[in-house]
Amino acid sequence: MHRVFQVFIDLLSNAGDTDAFAETMAITATALDLSCFAYLALPQRPNDRPLVISTYPENWVAHYVRNNYEQLDPVIRQALESPEPFRWGLDLPAIQIAPAQRIFLDEASEFGIRLGFTVPIHDGRGPVAALTFAAEQRRPQFERCIDTHGRVLQLMAMYFHAHVRRKLAGERKIDGILLSPREFECLEWSSRGKSAWEIGSILGISRRTVAFHLDNARAKLGVRTIRQAVVRLAESKR
Fold it and tell me: What is the CATH number of domain 2-168?
C-alpha cells in the first residue's frame, strides 16, 4: 500500500487538468482492485453544474449532469449529512428513499453502478464533495480493499479534493482581497486547526512553504497574526 500511495501522490502533484486527475485516480483504483471511481464537487451557486471527474461510462456522466442528478442522488444526499465514509448498494440495509431516487438507482445499475464506498469531503463550509469507488457486483478484492484500507482511501480522497480545488478552482477573495489559490488553501486548512506540518503533508509541500504562503495571506489581509487572518476568512464566509 505504501508504494501505491507514493505513486498516487507523485501523479497527483503533476496533474494539471481533469484528464490528468482522472488518470491519477484510475491508476490508483486499478492498483487496489477497485474498478471505477467518481469525484463530484457540488457547485457553489444553485444554477451552476457540479464538477465531475470520473471513470464511470461517459454517457451516464453526461446524463447525470444534464439532469441535475446531484440534487436527487441518495448517495450524495447521505454524503451531505455526515463526514464519515459509508458503503451502499447490494445486500446492505436500504436507506429510506423516494420513488424518484429508486428510479435513479435503477438507471445507475444499468451502467454497472450497483454498489460502492463513498468518502464525503467537508471543507469547513459544509459538505462540498464526495469521492466514490463503485462496482457492478460484490467481489472479494473490492471488499478486502475497503475493509483493510478504508481510512487510507479517505485520506486519498482528501488529498485528491485539495489538489483539484487548488488547480481547477477560480479566484479566491476575502473581503475583496485576492489571494493566490495556494495562500487561500493553506489558510483554509489552518482554519480547520491543521498545523503547518500537517498542511504540508496534505498538500505535498514543505512546512516552510506553508508558512511562506500563510505569511503572504496574513500580509495581504493587513493583519498581524495568522489567527487574525483565519478570523477574517471565517467572517467573509458569513
Answer: 3.30.450.80
